[in-house]
Amino acid sequence: ELVQFVSASEASEIAGIPLAVDALYFPHAGWINPTKLCAHLIKHPLIQVITNTTALDIEYKEERWCINNNDELQAPVIIIANARDSQLFKHTQHLPIKSIRGQITYLPETGASREINTVICSEGYIAPSQDGIHCTGATFNLKEESTELRIEDHQTNLENLREPLQGMADEWENLDKNLLDGRVAFRCTLPDYLPAVGPVADEESMLHSFAPLRKNARAFIKDTGKYLPGLYLNIGHGSRGLAYTPLCAEILAAHINNEPQPIASELATALNPARFLIRDLIKNKR
Fold this sequence. Notes:
Blueprint: E1 4-6, H1 8-15, E2 23-25, H2 34-41, E3 58-61, E4 64-67, E5 70-75, E6 78-80, E7 98-108, E8 120-121, E9 125-126, E10 133-137, E11 141-142, H3 151-159, H4 162-165, H5 170-173, E12 181-189, E13 196-201, H6 203-209, E14 227-235, H7 241-257, H8 265-271, H9 275-282
Parallel strand pairs: 6-14
Antiparallel strand pairs: 1-2, 3-4, 4-5, 7-10, 7-11, 7-12, 8-9, 9-10, 13-14
């Protein structure tokens, strides 16, 4: 029910276009417009959206978190969910965040590509057209900070379509790459490729309590971890944000409301943002 192996001919029938390779088919999968999804989720009477406000600093005082020292922007609970920019806050700047640039390309539909009726993934991916445009991508560029669209990345996205789409990709080859539209964004990843979801560690207390790990990685620590009250983190989803974040939101809700976790305790521990402080102590880096 979850995934099916299909031959090239079966894959072609499912996709609506000729495909030359066998494939894995996920019959219940689909594709989502992230902007429309977010717009739908925030239409709730208990949600107030404040935009065009940069959170430069957060401070805890009188059992509430204050943003930018603004008395009107206060809350007992704050969730930091701003991807790589979470390093800008002193409470989370110790996290070993990696930023990976990605560029997607918008391609005009052709007579043949108009027949694509499911997402096709190989080295790259292409989604069915919407309003005459296909979304395709995406590149991976570590240590690249450019926010401008690049012709070479458009070309990479086109090349990655050649294997699954064969001759169809040739129809886009003669397009003026300077005129192609797209989008650049930066994935937030962590060294173990797991997100960081949970309470933010009280760094100073953690380093003190777990100091014996510097000398003995198996040292018995009687103290439990200490965390900053009401401050939580939800970052490091890489390319899987739309898949991971609904469950991670439930994990955070359980933390905040002192409810049972919706996942196994071992997995909750593996996602704990404090894991990097512990690993640094074991490696004698802190």
